[in-house]
Amino acid sequence: MVGSVSKRSLAVIGVLAALAAGCGGGSKAVVTPVAQPSALPSTTAPSPSKAALPSPSAVTTDPLTGLALQHSPIVVIKVDNATTARRYQKGLGHAAIVYQELVESGQTRFAAVYDNAYTGEVGPIRSVRETDLELLPQYGRVAVAFSGGNTGIKGQFRGAVRAGKLLDASYDVLPHDYRLAERRVDARNFYSRPAILAASANGATPTDIGLRFGPIAPTAGRAAHAATIRFSDMMVVSVRYNASTGTWTVLQDGRVMPGVAPANIIVQSVPIKRGRYVDVLGASSPYATTVGHGNALILRNGRMVHATWKRATVKSGTHYVDDKGRDIPLQSGSTWVMLQPRTRSAVVT
Question: Does 6 map to a domain?
Answer without folding.
Answer: no
